[in-house]
């Protein structure tokens, strides 16, 4: 005879149907190559939205090849978020948007 305890940490599998309630604040990390990147271009893109934390340099790689910038923006819809993501990735010198 054994003692069986219910596992209270088990959660149902994610069904992909969770809904985001807009507006929502989104935090971005933009990784760029300093030799090609122009911070003014990034600021021009984010300036079209409601910025809750301005663009700021957050980190640089030890070799200096890449720099990371942080910015937070309030977005009003999923479409606006996708449009912003595309615009951020289109800035010259940007290698990755997280």
Description:
The chain is an alpha+beta fold and 98 residues long. The chain has one domain: ACT domain (Alpha-Beta Plaits), CATH 3.30.70.260. Helices cover 20% and strands 34% of the residues. The chain is built from 2 helices and 4 strands, in the order E-H-E-E-H-E. The chain has helices spanning 39-46, 78-89; strands at 24-32, 50-60, 67-75, 94-97. It has a 4-stranded antiparallel sheet with strand order 2-3-1-4. The longest helix is centred in the C-terminal third of the chain and has 12 residues, at 78-89. The protein is extended, with a radius of gyration of 19 Å. The termini are far apart.
Number of helices: 2
Number of strands: 4
In spatial order, strands of the major sheet run 2-3-1-4
Order of helices and strands: EHEEHE
- Distance between the terminal alpha carbons, to the nearest Å? 52 Å
Shape: extended
Largest sheet: 4 strands, antiparallel
Percentage of residues in DSSP E strands: 25-35%
How many whole angstroms does the radius of gyration measure? 19 Å
Structural class: alpha+beta
CATH class: Alpha Beta
Give the low-confidence spans: none
Average pLDDT across residues?
90
CATH architectural type: 2-Layer Sandwich
Instruction: Write the CATH homologous superfamily.
Output: ACT domain
List the domain count as a whole number.
1
Helix content: 10-25%
The CATH topology, please? Answer: Alpha-Beta Plaits
